[in-house]
Design a protein that fits this description.
The chain contains four helices and four strands, in the order βββααβαα. The chain is α+β, with helices and mostly antiparallel strands and 94 residues long. Strands 1-2-3-4 form a four-stranded mixed sheet.
């Protein structure tokens, strides 16, 4: 389960994310600019949904314990160059 809670409304938006799988959970502090959210969602999804789907993308590639504890959504593309290209498919899947 991925729980996303927005903690700040300014730009960048700030989120606390809890990922629960199996016996454990991890907690993450995530930032995302409104511009990045618009680019990833084409205005069709909330920022919370965007962060949730970004975590689904990450969890398909690494265990929850390997996801950075604090990061900006733009960092995902540095590790996984296909991130922005794959996001529309993830929005349609979840």
């Amino acid at each position: 389960m991925i729980e996303v809670r927005r903690t700040a409304e300014h730009d960048p938006l700030i989120f606390e994310v809890v990922v629960r799988e199996g016996k454990g959970e991890t907690r993450h502090h995530v930032t995302m600019s409104r511009e990045m959210c618009e680019r990833l969602t084409a205005g069709k999804h909330t920022p919370e949904r965007c962060v949730e789907v970004a975590f689904r993308f990450l969890l398909d590639r690494e265990p929850k314990e390997s996801i950075l504890g604090r990061f900006d959504v733009t960092a995902i593309s540095r590790y996984f160059p296909e991130f922005e290209r794959e996001m529309p498919r993830y929005f349609s899947r979840f």
